[in-house]
Amino acid sequence: MQISVDDLSGPEIAAFLEEHVQDMRAVTPLESKHALDLDGLRGPEVTFWAARDGGMLLGCGAIKRIDATHGEIKSMRTAPARKRGGVASRLLAHVVSEARRMGYTRLSLETGATEFFAPARALYEKFDFEYCAPFADYKEDPNSAFMTRLL
Questions:
Q1: How far apart are CA 23 and CA 9, in angstroms?
Q2: How far apart are CA 28 and CA 149, in angstroms?
Q3: What is the DSSP-derived secondary structure letter of residue 45?
Q4: What CA–CA distances, in Å, run from 133 to 34, 98, 108, 118, 148?
């Protein structure tokens, strides 16, 4: 598996991310959906990575800069056919490593609080993320779980 920065210009990644947004809309009330769309991920404050194997898109993840030392994990997604196969763990390890290299000392994230998101929360817990209060512009939300870790 190769993980590299992606410029979000290809149709395959656009379709992959649109499916991500649609999945989030299907399981999360609109007012609690915080997934960035393609334009949001193209912002200068975002670094986006794609994981591929032999050209096949396996997953993605991003960091959005909150400030000089604090980043937010965004758009973590694994291709449905590859879930529970280690893609997310390898991708998250890469994102955490890159965050350190970029000078961040803290990474935070927002994910869902419902049962659908239990595997995601377990993954973040495995990587030493701890539950925290809302950060940046987030507000308390019964549908959201907020997590953070020092790097």
A1: 21
A2: 25
A3: T
A4: 16, 24, 10, 18, 9
Pairwise CA distance, residues 75 & 50, whole Å: 10
Which 3 state secondary structure label does DSSP give 98? Answer: helix
Convert the pLDDT of each residue in 16-72 to its tens digit: 888 877 776 666 766 676 778 889 999 999 999 999 998 899 999 999 999 999 999
Q: Which strand (E) or helix (H) includes residue 106? A: strand 106-112
DSSP code, position 10:
S
DSSP secondary structure letter of residue 80: G
60: amino acid identity, one letter:
C
pLDDT digit string (tens) for 101-120? 999 999 999 999 999 999 99
pLDDT at 23: 72
Q: What angle do CA 113, 22, 149 make, to 5 degrees?
A: 40
Beta partners for 133? Answer: none
Which domains does the chain show, CATH number per domain? Answer: 2-150 (3.40.630.30)
Q: Which is more confidently placed, 124 or 24? A: 124
3-state secondary structure of 9: coil
CA distance 52 to 2: 5
